[in-house]
Structures are given as C-alpha cells and as structure tokens.
Automatic annotation (TrEMBL), chain A:
<keyword id="KW-0249">Electron transport</keyword>
<dbReference type="GO" id="GO:0046872">
    <property type="term" value="F:metal ion binding"/>
</dbReference>
<dbReference type="InterPro" id="IPR051269">
    <property type="entry name" value="Fe-S_cluster_ET"/>
</dbReference>
<dbReference type="Pfam" id="PF13459">
    <property type="entry name" value="Fer4_15"/>
</dbReference>
<protein>
    <submittedName>
        <fullName>Ferredoxin</fullName>
    </submittedName>
</protein>
<dbReference type="GO" id="GO:0051536">
    <property type="term" value="F:iron-sulfur cluster binding"/>
</dbReference>
<keyword id="KW-0411">Iron-sulfur</keyword>
<keyword id="KW-0479">Metal-binding</keyword>
<keyword id="KW-0408">Iron</keyword>
<keyword id="KW-0813">Transport</keyword>
Length: 68, 408
C-alpha cells in the first residue's frame, strides 16, 4: 500500500478546524486556530482513512493528500 | 452592523406571488418553510433578483455562493443585513463589517480566544449551564425547548466569556430581537437596540479599565492593533456588539433546529442515544441541513457570478443555508443523513469571513445535545403545541413545545 502525505494550503485555510476534529493526530492548529499538517505531513500507517476524511470535509478545499 | 437613524419606518411587505422575480426572505411562507422556495429559485437560475430591499440578488447554488464569498473585490461586507432601508453607515462591527485590508488585523485580535483549546476550557461551565437549565423543567414532563433550553445556553456562555453577569442574558436577547428581526423593517427598533447595547458595554469597558481581569473584554482592551497601538474604544465596542449579535441567536437557532429534528425523528434520536460518538458527525449534518445564518454583501462593482451579471448598488442575500441544500454539491441534499461522511457544508461561511465563533458554536451544540440526550433520551413534538420559526436572516425555532418520555 502506498504512503500518503498531507499538506494544508496556508492561503486557503480559514480555521474551520474540521481536520483537527476528524484527524487530531494528523493536524496542528496555531494560536489563531489555523491548521497545518503535523510533522512533515507523512500519514502513519493505519491513519489513511482519517486523512481522506479530513480532506473531504474541509470547506475551503485546503488539504492536499498525495500518494507516494 | 447598524446604520444611522435617517430613514423612516416601512410598512409590512406585500405577499409574494412570483418567487423567482420578487423573492422576499421576510415573507411568512419563507419563514415557515424556505426549502421548497430555494429549490424553485435554484431551478430558475444560479442567481435571482428582487426589486424589494432597494434591489437584491440571491445566489441559489453552492458554487454561486462560494464565488461571492471569495470575491471581496466586487462584494463588500460593509452591510451584512438585507433591509428595507440603506442609511449611511455609522456604527461598525469589525471584523464582520470589514473588507480587506482592514479585515485581517481586526479578525486576528478575536481569533485566539475562540480556538478549540480555548473552548475546551469553557466546556465544563457550558455543561453545568445545560444541566442547571434541565433541572428547572425536567420534572414537568414537558417544556418549550426553545424558550427554556436552547435560548439560554449561548447567552450564558458568551456572558461567562465576557465576564458579565449571566443573568443579563434577557437584556441581550431583547436587543438581538430588535436588531435582527424588528430592525429589518423598523429603523427605530434597530437604533434603540444598538444604543442600549452600546451604553451597556461602555459601562463595562470603563470598569475593566479600572479593574482588568482575564475576561474577553479585558483581553480586547489589552490587544494591539496592526500598528502596535491599542484598539480604540469604538473598535472594541464594535467587536463586542458583533460577539453578542452573532453569537447568540445563531447558536440558539442551530441547537433548536437540531432538537426539533430529533423530536420528530425517533430513529435518529435512538441512534445517537445508543452511539454518542456519532453526535459530532450528526451535528455537522444538522448544521448543513438547518444552517441558521444567511449573510449579506453589497455589490460594489459590476461583475458576473455563475454566468449571471450583477450590478453595483444592489445588496446580495448570501444564503449559506440554500448553498447547503444544493443537490449538485450534496447527494440527497434534502435528506438529513446523520452519518454523512463527506460534508463540506458552509454553515459558518466560506473564505475570510469564516465565523469567528464556529468552535464555540460546535462545542455548545455538542455539549447541549449530549446533556439533553443523557437526561431526556425520549421526547417528541407536543401535538397540542405549535413550532414557530424566527423571521429574517437567522433561522431557528422560537417556540418548540416537546413532551418527554415514550408515547403511551
């Protein structure tokens, strides 16, 4: 199975925080509540579904998921 | 959010007979059940127009709503309520009434107190508020859930954040009714509400200057604006007006609609009682299907939205609720699916004006529904009562009579 990597587009994120709620292991919020990917964005094995769930619930379409 | 007292009172509107060319979001038919109207408008065009309200467009699709929300060049937020009158703008409520470049610094001041972590610290107080309210009516076996429960939770929560007495909540509810409902057609009600609210906050501002605390008013007084200068009193007052106006009947409405749905849908209610872990997902679906808040913009420059020309000088009824019922975006859009997996709903807006209180609203809804279902797992609409809905741009039940327990 291929590895997933996530990235939050900082120009698009408006701080809805849906990703943090759905996949708390994969995202971090700054002091304003805007999201960025945890670490280098590599999705640990077993959390792939959560990565896709966060991606498909972001109202601003700010999350990119790429398969490596 | 308010305007000057120059314009006169306008009488009741004539009833609508042609929704596509003459829509009116204050018509009683719309207030009672707007969903079939939106479907009719959407089938006609992605953007419709009415001559009412001195000229107003309404985008009817998710795509058209999104294009307008992202386009701050052609669409200004300086007026955020569609009204009969359009007087000169005086009292502002930054950042909701701000456009770029003023918007970002005004919003950044408000964001840190409303992060999910900040809301976690407030959660125990909200849980206690919910239980205090339920204690007052649970023994009766019935209640008006809008008047006795959903109405008081956001008021008390925001009062707690601002460090003002929770018992002042009834005053806030009166001002909000004057500004958001009566104010659409009656300038005097609007101005009266704004004046009283501003006077109230001026007193609290002066008091916090003498005795600063950890509350949100003190935090705003300590905050620095873009140039490193403290915010002006007028700016702080504007933001306080915004928090009160935007933070109360919105969540009251979202919560009321959620309980209304659960009262009339036993299968969904039983599922959430059995699977409380599903409550956050269900709340997102309630927010989509029963989005309470419709915003407004003013067209500043002529442009095209989803192929439709829009002209300067008109207002825009920016209906996030209608966007959230667009079948092109949401399969089975008119059905409430409490475990809907993919849900990019726009209940809290899209783009730079994303609701600053969205984390607060979600926490309040989560806690209020959890506590209600724990203590009142079975309830239903009272067949002898009548559910009534608010008029205007924030939609939710204002009367919600329910009976507790299983049907005999």
């Amino acid at each position: 199975m291929s590895k997933l990597r996530i990235r939050v587009d900082q120009d698009k994120c408006q701080g809805h925080a849906r990703c943090k709620s759905l996949a708390p292991e994969l995202f971090e919020l700054d002091e304003y509540g805007n999201a960025h990917e945890a670490g280098d964005g590599t999705v640990p094995a077993g959390l792939e579904d959560k990565a896709w769930l966060a991606q498909t619930n972001c109202p601003e379409i700010a999350i990119e998921v790429t398969e490596e | 959010m308010s305007d000057s007292p120059s314009a006169s009172y306008l009488p009741e509107h004539p009833p609508v007979t042609d929704w596509v060319h003459d829509f009116d979001h204050t018509d009683p038919v719309w207030t009672d059940d707007p969903f079939p109207i939106w479907a009719t408008l959407r089938a006609a065009s992605p953007v419709v127009h009415t001559e009412r309200f001195l000229g107003c467009y309404m985008p009817t699709t998710y795509q058209a709503v999104k294009e307008i929300a992202y386009d701050t060049e052609h669409f200004s937020s300086r007026r955020v309520i569609v009204r009969d009158v359009r007087p000169e703008i005086t009292a502002r409520a930054p950042p909701i009434t701000s456009d770029p470049p003023e918007h970002k610094p005004a919003k950044q001041v408000l964001l840190p107190p409303f992060t999910p972590d900040a809301m976690k610290r407030l959660e125990p107080r909200v849980r206690a508020i919910c239980n205090e309210l339920i204690d007052e009516f649970i023994a009766d076996g019935h209640c008006d859930a809008a008047a006795r429960y959903t109405k008081h939770i956001p008021v008390r929560a925001i009062a707690h954040m601002l460090g003002i007495p929770e018992k002042d909540g009834d005053l806030f509810i009166k001002w909000i009714h004057q500004i958001l409902e009566l104010g659409i057609k009656d300038e005097n009600e609007m101005m009266g509400g704004v004046r009283e609210m501003t006077g109230y906050f001026v007193t609290h501002l002066e008091q916090r200057k003498l005795e600063p605390g950890d509350d949100l008013i003190s935090q705003l007084l300590r905050a620095k604006g873009p140039g490193g200068q403290p915010l002006t009193d007028e700016h702080v007052l504007g933001s306080l007006r915004l928090l009160l106006i935007a933070g109360i009947d919105t969540t009251w409405s979202a919560l009321g609609s959620s309980l209304w749905h659960l009262a009339k849908t036993p299968a969904d209610r039983e599922r959430l009682v059995a699977e409380p872990a599903l409550i956050p997902t269900a709340i997102e679906e309630f927010l989509r299907a029963y989005s309470p808040v419709t915003m407004a913009r003013e067209v500043m420059k002529e442009t095209t939205i989803s192929g439709c020309p829009v002209k300067a000088g008109n207002m825009v009824l920016l209906s996030f609720p209608a966007a959230n019922r667009d079948p092109a975006m949401f399969p089975d859009a008119d059905r409430v699916v409490i475990d809907r997996k993919e849900n990019r709903h726009a209940a809290f807006g899209l783009g730079i004006h994303r609701c600053v209180g969205s984390n607060l609203a979600r926490m309040e809804m989560q806690v209020a529904i959890e506590e209600w279902l724990k203590r009142i797992p079975d309830f239903r609409l009272d067949p002898a009562g009548k559910v009534t809905w608010s008029e205007g741009t924030v939609r939710g039940p204002r009367q919600l009579p329910v009976l507790f327990g299983k049907t005999a």
